[in-house]
From TrEMBL:
A matching Pfam family: adh_short
Protein name in UniProt: NAD(P)-dependent dehydrogenase (Short-subunit alcohol dehydrogenase family)
Ranges in coiled-coil conformation: none
Lineage: Bacteria, Pseudomonadati, Pseudomonadota, Alphaproteobacteria, Hyphomicrobiales
Organism: Rhizobium giardinii
Keyword Cytoplasm annotated: no
Length: 280
């Protein structure tokens, strides 16, 4: 039984990382389509503002939480079950992107990225699957990225988590299909958000968060395993993996101009994390 596609009358949707970017745009789009949407992030004020902007007919339900805390995510799921009803759809979107340069690596950058992107997803996935198993059906989508297709400059931490999420979802699909739970991965290209605004390099085929939300909703309805967009860019990145490594590294250096960029000045170890990126 793998043909389940969530509809508003079957239960609410849960979106993590909903305070900004893709998660925020997706929550608004799902509410416009009639879903009541539980939204989770650490920024309470941003979630409350999102709640005010809900276009209806669905409403936004604010459930603050930190995805890196498994007990917090168990609490969120308990609140959904006992206060708001059945959950038909889950979109696990919370994540951070911390660039890593090989000549300036710091353990904290890896640990933060793994804690939010990988362990944070697992912390949400486990209770969501249990909830849906009890009802015999459900739909879960995990936001990954084309960075998970292969190694890219500065992506040693971020890309590693996204590759792990893709592999994890591929592995779990075999069993979740039998349990009646549709599992999907979402692999967007460049989306205009506060995080990508910090990029200092060209971002081909850049789309807005609202357009990304439209593409995701379309993919959720179609039910295919991978939702990826814009295909003119993401398929090209995927095809790079079929190249021999020599050609792969040569082409990426040529396309990005990375080989000609100067090395960065290493940060002092004590100041490796001068900011605390939010799990938005």
């Amino acid at each position: 039984m793998t043909d389940f596609v969530a509809h508003p009358e079957q239960g609410l949707a849960w979106v993590t990382g909903a305070s900004s970017g893709i998660g925020r745009a997706l929550a608004l789009r799902l509410a416009r389509d009639g879903f009541d949407v539980a939204v989770t992030a650490r920024d309470h004020e941003q979630l409350v503002q999102l709640q005010r902007e809900a276009p209806g007919p669905g409403k936004i339900i604010v459930l603050d939480g930190d995805v890196t805390d498994p007990r917090d995510m168990e609490r969120v799921l308990a609140s959904i079950e006992y206060e708001h009803g059945a959950m038909a759809l889950t979109v696990l979107n919370a994540g951070v992107s911390i660039p890593v340069h090989g000549e300036d690596m710091h353990r904290e950058d890896f640990e933060k990225t793994f804690a939010v992107n990988l362990h944070g997803t697992v912390n949400c996935l486990l209770p969501a699957v249990r909830h849906m198993q009890a009802r015999g059906h459900g739909q879960i989508a995990i936001v990954c990225a084309v960075a998970g297709y292969g190694g890219l400059p500065t992506g040693a931490a971020y890309g590693a988590t996204k590759a792990a999420l893709i592999n994890m979802a591929e592995s779990l699909k075999f069993d979740l299909d039998k349990a009646g739970i549709r599992l999907q991965v979402i692999n967007p290209g460049f989306v205009a958000t506060a995080e990508t605004a910090k990029n200092t390099f060209s971002m081909p085929a850049l789309i807005s968060a609202e357009e990304a939300a439209d593409r995701i909703v379309s993919g959720l309805k179609s039910g295919g395993f991978e939702i990826t967009f814009p295909k003119r860019f993401t398929y090209m990145v995927k095809l790079l993996r079929f190249l021999p490594y020599g050609a792969y590294f040569w082409l990426l250096n040529r396309l990005t101009g990375w080989k000609d960029r100067p090395l960065v000045t290493p940060r002092p170890a004590a100041k490796a994390m001068t900011r605390d990126p939010q799990a938005v």
